[in-house]
Amino acid sequence: MGNGMNKVLPGLYVGNYRDSKDPLQLDKYKITHILSIHDAARRIHADKHYLCIMASDSPDQNLTQYFSLCNDFIHAARLRDGNVLIHCLAGMSRSVTVAVAYIMSVTPLNWREALKVVRAGRAVANPNLGFQRQLQDFETYKLVEERRRLKERYPSLALTDSDMAECRVMLDSYQTMLNQRTICEGKCAMGRQCPTGVCRTGSKRQPRPRRPSTASTVAEPVGVGGGGLKRSPSTLSTASTTSNYRPRSSPAGLYSYTGVPTRPTRSASGLSVTRVTDPVGGGSGMAVGGSEYSRRRAASAPTTPALSPASSPPGSPHRPPHRSRALQRCS
């Protein structure tokens, strides 16, 4: 973008905003007409013919509406042996789109071939996707009418043969540059060095390494065969792991554990069980407590004496042991 303006056809140049202000370049290429198309287009040199178009470099900016006006300005200047500079800010998108539309209108080339002609002269030419779609729509719906209009308004054929001959040379040059990888079509992969600097050349984004969790990876037995399945480190704290806390299920209904669930023991639960025996009655009881004081208190507490076997109610005769009929007959 800083190598100066570039010739794309005889009498037609494409450049950037800096080139449009440089008097040395303007004198070198004998520029007589300047087509300025950017956000703050204005006349700079009083001795030049200007066409200023206010347009942003946005995909939704409509440039098609200016194609006929630009074609008249460029073609009329070239027919009078003038030299035209088309420029925007960077000389990559807006100015290139206008140049491609003009080449399509004065030659039989389609928009892709016309873009190759411009790229052969200016390697950084790369209209945004919105402008490329506008060029395609212009070719499909309006190009035939625009060619007819130009022929009726400018019946001179002085530039027809020279423009076609120059376009063939530029297309051959483009193919040679493409084979030698000194130019690209704006499709370089991310991380690959673009020969023209048009494509992004940043390195591929590396995935951020995951920070290891405080919980260690545990292999849990799965199935009968005893195969182990390693659990990935969870983000749960160590406190929830030691207390065998069961986390809530995820939205998919899956559970995540950080350790092997074990059955709580008496010591782990902080409870102690003491059997107390009454030395007098022979009865026993269970004392449950979580401290030594509780256990002593349970041992010293009186226990319920053992009950003797219940006797038969008064008035009811004691039934003798049942004997079978066979024994009764024998007796």
Give a quick set of tags describing it.
11 helices, two-stranded antiparallel sheet, 5-stranded mixed β-sheet, Protein-Tyrosine Phosphatase, Chain A, Prot-tyrosine_phosphatase-like, 35% helix, 331 residues
Verbal overview:
This protein is of the alpha/beta class. The protein has eleven helices and nine strands. The strands form three sheets. Strands 1-2-5-3-4 form a five-stranded mixed beta sheet. Strands 6-7 form a two-stranded antiparallel ribbon. A two-stranded antiparallel sheet has the order 8-9. Mean pLDDT is 76; it is low at 215-229, 232-243, 249-262, 264-273 and 324-331. Helix 3 (67-79) packs across helix 4 and helix 5 packs across helix 7. It has a domain at 6-179: Protein-Tyrosine Phosphatase, Chain A (Alpha-Beta Complex). Belongs to the protein-tyrosine phosphatase family. Non-receptor class dual specificity subfamily.
- The CATH superfamily name of the domain at 6-179 is Protein tyrosine phosphatase superfamily
Shape: globular
The largest sheet is: 5 strands, mixed
**Portion in helices:** 25-40%
- Return the average pLDDT rounded to an integer: 76
Say how many strands there are: 9
Radius of gyration: 48 Å
Q: What is the CATH domain class of the domain at 6-179?
A: Alpha Beta
End-to-end gap: 133 Å
What fold name goes in the CATH topology slot of the domain at 6-179? Protein-Tyrosine Phosphatase, Chain A
User: Under the CATH scheme, which architecture of the domain at 6-179 would be assigned?
Assistant: Alpha-Beta Complex
**What is the helix/strand order?**
EEHHEEHEHHHHEEHHEEHH
Category from helices, strands and their pairing: alpha/beta
- Record the strand order, biggest sheet: 1-2-5-3-4
**Which residue ranges are poorly predicted, with pLDDT under 50 across at least 5 consecutive positions?**
215-229, 232-243, 249-262, 264-273, 324-331
Strand content: 5-15%
